């Protein structure tokens, strides 16, 4: 049974109780708080493995909590899963770009929430391959040193940007990358290109990967991730 610590930040008492009950039943150590201020104090004092962070909080909102946590070197390693009822995709994008690891939108089933917590903890425990390590994932073999991609043993003719995009996603399966994060990591933050240019690159990459293109998942309104 897991013994990782989960801090639940939720101002609606019924939802807080529901989440706490289900996580405790799964074996997690759970603590609940109702405000952003309490979340910041509890994270520093208790050092949870994961923070389930509602974005709509009284006082200090969830995005500000995320910003503060990720800016503090002593606690920036703590995983954050945003939990929000907001339908505005901009909040999800902002949270991910601030360093959040994943998100769940309300209403949600407890099973889905627990699965997200498990996935975040699993990804955090797996070392990220360095830039030069060959990757074998699904039907793909990616050789950074050779700048080569094999799909079921056959080479795929990728451009430099397509290769870099695939390598970026494949090194962190399951992680959601926003379009701006992709641009920043591939070209630098001063690269003069719109986020829609990333979509064009993905379309071209998918065509060249054939059926293996199913590995690249679109996260609607947010960006892309590589299938776990």
Write a concise keyword list for the protein shown above.
228 residues, 2 domains, 4-stranded antiparallel sheet, 5-stranded parallel sheet, 41% helix, Arc Repressor Mutant, subunit A, Rossmann fold, alpha/beta, 8 helices
What can you tell me about this protein's structure?
This protein has eight helices and twelve strands. With 228 residues, the chain is α/β, with parallel strands linked by helices. The strands form three sheets. A five-stranded parallel beta sheet has the order 2-1-3-4-5, with helices on both faces. Strand 6 and strand 7 (140-143) form a beta hairpin. Helix 2 runs parallel beside helix 3 (62-71). The model has no long low-confidence stretch (mean pLDDT 90).
List the helices and strands and how they pair.
Blueprint: E1 5-9, H1 13-25, E2 29-33, H2 36-46, E3 50-54, H3 62-71, E4 79-84, H4 89-98, E5 102-105, H5 110-125, E6 135-137, E7 140-143, E8 148-151, E9 154-156, H6 160-170, E10 177-178, H7 179-187, H8 196-209, E11 216-219, E12 223-226
Parallel strand pairs: 1-2, 1-3, 3-4, 4-5
Antiparallel strand pairs: 6-7, 7-8, 8-9, 10-12, 11-12
What is the gist of this entry?
By secondary structure, this protein is of the alpha/beta class. It has helices at 13-25, 36-46, 62-71, 89-98, 110-125, 160-170, 179-187, 196-209, and strands at 5-9, 29-33, 50-54, 79-84, 102-105, 135-137, 140-143, 148-151, 154-156, 177-178, 216-219, 223-226.
- Give, in order, the helices and strands: EHEHEHEHEHEEEEHEHHEE
For the report, how would you describe the main beta sheet? Answer: 5 strands, parallel
Overall domain count:
2
The gross shape turns out to be elongated
What's the CATH topology label of the largest domain? Rossmann fold
Mean pLDDT score: 90
How does the helix and strand content classify structurally?
alpha/beta
Taking all Cα atoms into account, the compactness measure Rg is 19 Å
Strand content: 15-25%
Please give the CATH class of the largest domain: Alpha Beta
Number of helices: 8
The second-level CATH architecture of the largest domain is 3-Layer(aba) Sandwich
Helix content: 40-55%
- At the fourth level of CATH, the homologous superfamily of the largest domain is Response regulator
DSSP E strands, number = 12
How far from one another are the termini? 22 Å
Low-confidence spans: pLDDT under 50, at least 5 residues? none
Adjacency order of strands in the biggest sheet: 2-1-3-4-5
């Amino acid at each position: 049974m897991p013994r990782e610590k989960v801090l639940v930040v939720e101002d609606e008492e019924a939802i807080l109780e529901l989440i706490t009950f289900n996580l405790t039943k799964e074996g997690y150590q759970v603590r609940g708080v109702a405000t952003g201020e309490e979340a910041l104090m509890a994270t520093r004092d208790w050092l949870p493995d994961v923070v389930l962070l509602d974005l709509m909080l009284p006082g200090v909102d969830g995005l500000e909590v995320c910003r503060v946590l990720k800016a503090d070197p002593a606690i920036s390693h703590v995983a954050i899963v945003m939990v929000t009822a907001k339908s505005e995709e901009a909040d999800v994008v902002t949270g991910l770009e601030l360093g959040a690891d994943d998100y769940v939108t309300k209403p949600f089933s407890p099973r889905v929430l627990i699965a997200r917590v498990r996935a975040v903890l699993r990804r955090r425990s797996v070392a990220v391959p360095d830039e030069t390590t060959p990757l074998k994932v699904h039907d793909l073999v990616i050789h950074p040193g050779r700048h080569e991609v094999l799909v079921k043993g056959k080479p795929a003719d990728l451009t430099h940007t397509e290769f870099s995009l695939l390598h970026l996603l494949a090194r962190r399966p399951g992680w959601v990358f926003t379009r701006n994060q992709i641009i920043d990591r591939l070209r630098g933050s001063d690269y003069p290109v719109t986020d829609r240019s990333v979509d064009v690159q993905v379309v071209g990459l998918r065509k060249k990967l054939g059926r293996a293109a199913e590995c690249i998942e679109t996260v609607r309104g947010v960006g892309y991730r590589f299938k776990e």
